[in-house]
Amino acid sequence: MCGFGGYFGSIRDAEALLARMITAIAHRGPDEQGKFVVPDAGLGHARLSVIGIGDGQQPMSDVSGNLTIAFNGEIFNYLELREGLIAKGRRFRTSSDTEVILHLFDEMGEDCLSLLNGDFALAIWDNRRRRMVLARDRMGVRPLFYTNKDGVLYFASEIKALLKVPGISAEIDPIALDQIFTLWAPIAPRTAFRNIYELEPASVMIVTPGQVTGKRYWQLDYPHRDAPSKLTNEDDAAEELQALLSDAVMLRMRADVPVGSYLSGGLDSSLVSVLAAGMTPLQLQTFSVTFDSAEHDESAFQTEMASALGARHRTVACQAGDIAGVFPEVIRFAERPIIRTAPAPLYQLSGLVRQAGLKVVLTGEGADEVFAGYDIFREARVRRFCGRQPASRMRPNLFRRLYPYLPGLQQQSVEYLAAFFGAGNTALDDPLFSHRPRFKTTAAAKIFFSGDLRATLKGYDAAEELVSRLPEAFPRWHPLHQAQYLESRFLLPGYILSSQGDRMAMAHGIEGRFPYLDHRLVEFAAGLPPDMKLKGLVEKHILRKAAKHLLPSAIGERTKQPYRAPEARSFVGAGELDYVSDLLSEASIAAGGLFNAKAVANLHEKCRTQPASGFRDNAAFVGILSTQLWQKNFTGQEAGAARAA
After folding, report:
1. Percent of the chain scored above 90 by pLDDT?
2. CB neighbour list of residue 23: distance below 8 Å, 6 or more residues apart
3. Which of 211, 398, 598, 637 has CB 3.0 to 4.6 Å from 631, enough for a Cys bridge?
4. 287 pairs with which residues across the strands?
């Protein structure tokens, strides 16, 4: 895992610029740095050495010097690809996966991307054709950002490197902020920064003098809802699933350094860990985060699973005040406002992995998107069930079954449940049916937007833009597959793999690997009948079946407890840190110009005086505070600027 940056066009002081860009993202690659400069193009690289430790330095050129690559990520099937290239007469100078990409690109151009099983972002300078080629992995695990300034294309693994380019400065994109306060993340290619963009997952961009072309080289797809399934036998499907997942884990165990595993105590990470434990000659090292609050803590299950694995297990305790303590760093590395605190404990967890001396960990992320594990999928099924008999007083009771970990919900009336979840209020053919309640609840936090921001947005609707980005085949998919697409195509790369994933891990130079996002497994799961994934209200049914004989029953049969972290209450109370009260002061809010200062002051006081607050208030509090931190970090706005004026 690494970080890189570069440019295409004519600039001055190229070496110095590349040095500044790479220094800004040195945390991604603390082992070594390199630069490559030719007329009108340059690449810089910060390396985290995991494969080909002694000979995988970058930027790397082929023997002819015509192709040069800067690469962030891993190609997990590089050994198989290498063998095929050697059989064709290709000769290798290194043992790295990077050189495999160069040979493949020399043979196939950008068509070679379809052969890569990996998590990657890359830039290839093609000197013969005078073009720069940028590409990103299928699911969007690794980031790549770009912008144009005075006719020059600049690109980098993180935006903070682009801000080192003279004349490029940070300015909030109000549309992106509206998207974050509705959808949890900007819709790529938009980012939180005005005029700075993100290359979309599964995309390639080809830049030549005066022209930029792009295309997607892979699409997430599902069968027609009426098409007969190719796999109807659950036993056969579970067997194939286990074989695919085992191979995905095996490929992701490839490294010239030890590989550890995150262990949440749930089905997904436990299954990955048990497979990994059987593939390493060493004692598997596992890592977990624990909480003081019982509603968030899963330590009992983590301990049980670690004991069953015989793992060397380490934990980091996320205690009262810890989230507030690290939150400024979380926003600096996330490079965007966020409405949840969940990235903060993962920032702590990756720090624990670094302290243990590891560079690589496996994670269970992606299983919920691929195998329909989230509550939102079950909730949508119940809402459709209620929508067919909107007057029923029995059907809304099913909502209680969905959220046993939310005790307050169990006490609510049937009328409240039906109203809260929007049972019967959304047209069954609405393309966003599954997600309307989430978007509506999150968007309620926009009540704190300032009048000026509202005027700028002019009634913009983030959800409707999302609808405009849906593929032509979307209406023909089963409702569960539509919901899965929304999670996998937008929230997964936009938030889960970014703010909670790559950015928190790479802040400490840790590479996360995601077996459930192996594209072969994703394609296999997409073709399964919906009821194999969500059987009644049992989530990830087929994955549970595949794991049945591999995990303790207490783990394999657990109802999913989604990963959450304490939110507004993490920042307020007797130990409230100075930066919180400073950034949320009326003067600071007014200086930022994005939120209503009086309303934010009332929200702050409410969170201080009341022990519990609803989703809207939590999302608003975290979103406003993170936006204020973003502005202070990237635009230089200081808290209390209005008072000093």
Report:
1. 83
2. none
3. 637
4. 262, 314
DSSP H helices, 253-321, are: 267-277, 299-309
d(Cα 63, Cα 102) in Å, to the nearest integer?
10
Listed as own residue / partner, the contacts of 158-161 with beta carbons closer than 8 Å and 24 or more positions apart are 158/3, 158/24, 158/25, 158/28, 158/335, 158/503, 159/191, 159/193, 159/196, 159/335, 160/24, 160/25, 160/332, 160/335, 160/634, 161/3, 161/5, 161/21, 161/22, 161/24, 161/25
Please, which residues have CB within 8 angstroms of residue 159's CB and are 6 or more apart in sequence?
145, 191, 193, 196, 335
Cross-strand pairs, 538 = 535
Burial 428-453 (b: 16+ CB within 10 A, else e): eeebbbbbbbbbebbbbbbebbbeeb
607 in helix, strand or coil? helix
Structure tokens at 37: 């400069």
If one counts every other C-beta atom within 10 angstroms of the C-beta of residue 468, the result is 7
Token pair 């989703």: residue: 615
DSSP 447: G
Q: What angle do CA 200, 62, 520 make, to 5 degrees?
A: 40
Cα separations in angstroms, 1 against 93, 118, 131, 140, 258 = 20, 11, 25, 15, 14
Sign of the Cα torsion 356, 360, 364, 366 reads: positive
Q: What is the pLDDT of residues 286-324, one digit of tens each?
A: 999 999 988 888 999 999 999 999 999 999 999 889 999
Residue 594 has pLDDT above 80, yes or no: yes
Count of positions (residues) in the chain: 645
Cβ partners under 8 Å of residue 495, min gap 6 = 184, 185, 338
Are 297 and 304 contacting, i.e. CB atoms less than 8 angstroms apart? no
Residue 210: exposure state from Cβ atoms within 10 A (0-12, 13-18, ≥19): exposed
Give, in degrees to the nearest 5, the angle at Cα 398 between 396 and 403. Answer: 115
